[in-house]
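Case study 2.
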Amino acid sequence: MFRLVMTMGIVQVEQNRLRQQEIEVKALIALMNQDVFRDFKHQAIAKLREIAFPELLAEKINQETL
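Prediction:
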């Protein structure tokens, strides 16, 4: 019984993390689509690229730590 409850808790945490990332992506897309603050637009595009390609971000972090 304890394992089932623990597993369900882990699943719920993962679902919450995915919802949070979905909200973040929607906010970044909104920033990307606006034309007022170009710096925010470029930062949003960079962050979306990191979310879309996590392996590239991992490579970048590995190169910075060397």
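The first helix runs from residue 2 to 33.
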